[in-house]
Amino acid sequence: MTVNDDSFTNWKNREEIAESMIPIIGKLHRERDVTVLLHSRSLVNKSVVSILKTHRFARQIAGEELSVTETLPFLQALTTLDLGPSQIDIAMLAETYRSDDRGLSVAEFTAEAVAGATGDGKIERREPRDVVLYGFGRIGRLVARLLIEKAGSGNGLRLRAVVVRQGGEQDIVKRASLLRRDSIHGQFQGTITVDEANSKIIANGNEIKVIYAGDPSEVDYTAYGIKDAILIDNTGKWRDREGLSKHLRPGIDKVVLTAPGKGDVPNIVHGVNHDTIKPDEQILSCASCTTNAIVPPLKAMADEYGVLRGHVETVHSFTNDQNLLDNYHNSDRRGRSAPLNMVITETGAASAVAKALPDLQAKITGSSIRVPVPDVSIAILNLQLARETSREEVLDYLRNVSLTSPLMRQIDFTSAPDAVSNDFIGSRHASIVDAGATKVEGDNAILYLWYDNEFGYSCQVIRVVQHVSGVEYPTYPAPVV
Fold it and tell me: Is residue 317 located within the same domain as residue 429?
């Protein structure tokens, strides 16, 4: 047998193992509301090749490839336990087991590592929480995809309605088509049908009522059987407490804004300050995509090294608030053609840091350039630290933060030398540290942070909504604080 034959045989064996993992992962998700992760990446509804690629990706961040032969025994061990709703990272199980010297079997170690999700301490499955989307643009449709994806277990969050202004002929058909196909993020994973007579979109069995209204005051959500719902406003039309309070109509309990909030509206970056949300707070903001990209790594650096001052320069993809061709715009430069120009513009991300990290005394400044790509941006975070360090130390620290810390869902890490923006379309992390571009000299560190300003941000929005709804399930093994 040749070397090539050996490689192919090995691939086929790993394919067979990955194939055997799919029904186990699906059953845990459907029947027990358990999401199986691999280095913070969900394996639910993933193909054989996707599972293998996710295992291989571990090489970039952990230094060596993780094999399905290593993780399968832990997955099998989970099926023997009386698990409650949770997220379980089998990569972390495999790696912590590798360094454990007590001689425990895989089954014994797994039972101990996820003990909080079993027995009397486990969380009981909750009734679904109603969610309403106000607006159905770029972020609205991606949030809808995520809500539908996470409804697979029948618990957690349930998208009940979308509120939009009445468009032209076949309005609901066209909106469903935009949900079904996306030029950047690809096809919707599942089936979508339209019930025009009842003004409904049915996505993977989820009936979503399309409500036409020109103003929040026109809607009584209880008329549609909606109660205690969380409304996600992705229009950005109202950004202060007075304006967003218009949404607190019958059937709506809380309002979450997908733009920076103004005044006393809390700006929340999940992973950093979500635990400061008061139980009775009815109105909050998820800040901006750029704020979500820079605040987690900024917190990580401040915790370890201290930060005296910083500047963030964002190179941001163009958005719908710019013109395709030169035309009138209220902003000085955004009227110039978005796909033909680099456009200097303002960003509120730097000032928003103070809301998310009130204990950070460092002055952070910021500016932004819009560039001719439709998605994925990069933030260049230039920091003066409180102590000197080295590039190797910073990269080792951030790699570990991405793998085992409470910020592992926010911060990702790549050492790929040829990475470009398109490689991060669909990333579920708030930001991805580019190891190759990182520069450190003495007390100065420059971090290059990629982020999918559409999808990664939408994932952060969902995490905040899960938190305030009480369906944000714990992760095992517990992250290292």
Answer: yes
Q: Which residues pair with 313 in a beta bridge?
A: 367, 380
Q: Are residues 114 and 169 in the same domain?
A: no
Q: How far apart are CA 143 and CA 175, in angstroms?
A: 14
- With residues binned 3-state (H G I as helix, E B as strand, rest as coil), the percentages for the chain, rounded to 5, are 40, 25, 35
Residues 319 and 447 in one domain: yes
HSE value, Cβ hemisphere, 13 Å, CA-based, for 367: 4
* Rounded alpha-carbon distances, angstroms, from residue 371 to 317, 338, 340: 5, 7, 8
- Decide if 269 is inside a domain: no
pLDDT tens digits for 367-415?
A: 999 999 999 999 999 999 999 999 999 999 999 999 889 999 999 999 9
Q: Does the reported pTM lie above 0.70?
A: yes
Question: Which entry of 289, 350, 395, 398 is annotated as an active-site residue?
Answer: 289
Q: Are 297 and 317 in contact (CB under 8 A)?
A: no
pLDDT tens profile 253-268: 999 999 999 999 999 9
Which of 370-396 are b and which e, b meaning 16 or more Cβ less than 10 Å from the residue's Cβ? Answer: bbebbbbbbbbbbbbbeeebeeeebbe
Q: Does 289 participate in catalysis according to the annotation?
A: yes
Strand, helix or coil for residue 195: strand
